[in-house]
Amino acid sequence: MCLLLLNRLCGKLSRRSEHWFFSFPLFTSVSIVCMGTSSSQEMPPPVVVPPGSAPHRGTLIFLHGLGDTGNSWAENFRMLKLPNIKCICPTAAIAPVSLNGGFPMTSWFDIYGLSADSAEDEEGIKKASNIIKSLIEEEEKAGIPSNQIVIGGFSQGGAVALNTAFNLGKPLGGVLALSTWMPLHKKFMKLMEKPERPAPFPILQCHGTQDPLVALTWGEATRDLIKIVNPQLMFKTYPMGHSSCSQEMVDVQEFLKTTLLPTGASK
């Protein structure tokens, strides 16, 4: 049953008319899901896409979705040829996923269900958030301040990015949230009541109107929740499923340039 579900949800890259359609569903690779039986494995080194042109002015740290790797998104960002912007795409360790019958796959945290009332892996989310924080610290040591760093992700990876952004404790350049949701949403408003809550920062949130896995209503609820404390959120929808498309990537490119490149910088 597990393999049948994965085959049904498996990602495809197909050409429709004159536009590339990128499909990155919740589960993206049967081969990844079934490799090994250990409870977890170490993360491989992140895939790094150097700036399309010098100098290095800003950094994007982007987390893939469940069952995917950093390689696919790194290739997408490489095709954007972002000037002065480095892209870091880590790959999650392989671990059992409850929603997948306990089979191991690349995962930032465990997922128990797809309903709003499902239990959440708070410890796993926090551990994944610490991975982003460590990557931010490495960029700061290299001379890139945190307000010149955008963090983001697709689906499960986007959930980690959103959680990190509101728990970072330092200025952030922005957030790129694709086909995702706000994790631990029941604790979000209590967290925002603290005096040290972050100042508003730019967020680009994108979602497919036909998403069968992370429903559009989840995206809209996430948008509405965030806007209570951070009005600097731009919400865009596209006629697609749990995936990405050419127009979304154009919007991502523009967001990154606007957010990370100062006026008059090389383009």
Distance between the termini: 49 Å
Number of strands: 12
Q: Main sheet: which strands, in order across? A: 3-5-4-8-9-10-11
Helix content: 25-40%
The low-confidence runs, each spanning 5 or more residues with pLDDT under 50, are 1-40
What fraction strand? 15-25%
Descriptive overview:
The protein is of the alpha/beta class. Helix content is 32%, strand content 21%. It has 8 helices and 12 strands. The strands form 3 sheets. A 7-stranded mixed beta sheet has the order 3-5-4-8-9-10-11, with helices on both faces. Strand 8 (149-154), helix 5 and strand 9 form a beta-alpha-beta unit. The chain is globular and about 45 Å long. Residues 1-40 have low confidence and may be disordered.
Reconstruct the topology from this structure.
Layout: H1 2-9, E1 13-16, E2 19-23, H2 30-33, E3 47-49, E4 58-63, H3 70-80, E5 85-89, E6 94-96, E7 104-106, H4 122-141, E8 149-154, H5 156-165, E9 174-178, H6 188-192, E10 203-208, H7 216-227, E11 233-238, E12 243-245, H8 246-260
Parallel strand pairs: 4-5, 4-8, 8-9, 9-10, 10-11
Antiparallel strand pairs: 1-2, 2-12, 3-5, 6-7
Can you summarize this structure?
The protein is of the alpha/beta class and 267 residues long.
Overview features:
267 residues, alpha/beta, 7-stranded mixed beta sheet, 3-stranded antiparallel beta sheet, disordered N terminus
